[in-house]
């Protein structure tokens, strides 16, 4: 009974060595996504502040479920607002921090 494994059977699982340029591109992509997420969190905080500045004495009383739904809606609107160019905070952060990823400073 031969239980040896052929090296050809596991060739697909060998990790690909990344070059410095590929690693830099991957790091830049991660930085861009992080800056976008930061911008979304910032916009979400703006939405929450704006919502809290309005009076809550409406005809329909707000229960806990409504507050949770509004928080989730605000976060999703903030993420959509931060997509693309957003309001510019994420892009400004990316422009300032990418020099460190690229090793220019």
Short description:
With 105 residues, the protein is mainly α. It has helices at 20-52, 64-82, 89-102.
Could you characterize what this model shows?
This protein is mainly alpha-helical. It has helices spanning 20-52, 64-82, 89-102. It has one domain (19-54, 62-102). The longest helix has 33 residues, at 20-52. 9% of the residues are buried.
**Strand share of the residues?**
under 5%
Classify the helix fraction into a percent range: 55-70%
Instruction: Please tally the β strands and state the result.
Output: 0
User: What can be said about the biggest beta sheet?
Assistant: none
If you compute it from the alpha carbons, what radius of gyration comes out, rounded to the nearest whole angstrom?
A: 23 Å
Large-scale geometry: elongated
Mean pLDDT: 84
Low-confidence stretches: none
Number of helical elements? 3
N→C terminal distance:
61 Å
What is the N-to-C order of secondary-structure elements (H for helix, E for strand)?
A: HHH
Number of domains: 1
The assigned structural class equals mainly alpha
Question: Could you name the key traits of this structure?
Answer:
single chain, 105 residues
Itemize the secondary structure elements and their pairings.
Elements lengths: L19 H33 L11 H19 L6 H14 L3
Helix pairs in contact: 1-2, 1-3
């Amino acid at each position: 009974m031969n239980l040896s494994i052929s090296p050809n059977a596991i060739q697909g699982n060998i990790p690909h060595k990344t070059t410095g340029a590929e690693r830099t591109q991957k790091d830049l992509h991660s930085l861009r996504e992080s800056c976008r997420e930061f911008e979304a969190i910032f916009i979400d905080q703006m939405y929450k502040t704006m919502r809290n500045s309005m009076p809550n004495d409406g005809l329909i009383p707000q229960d806990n479920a409504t507050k949770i739904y509004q928080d989730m809606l605000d976060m999703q609107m903030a993420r959509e607002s931060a997509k693309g160019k957003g309001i510019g905070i994420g892009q400004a952060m990316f422009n300032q921090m990418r020099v460190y990823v690229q090793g220019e400073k």
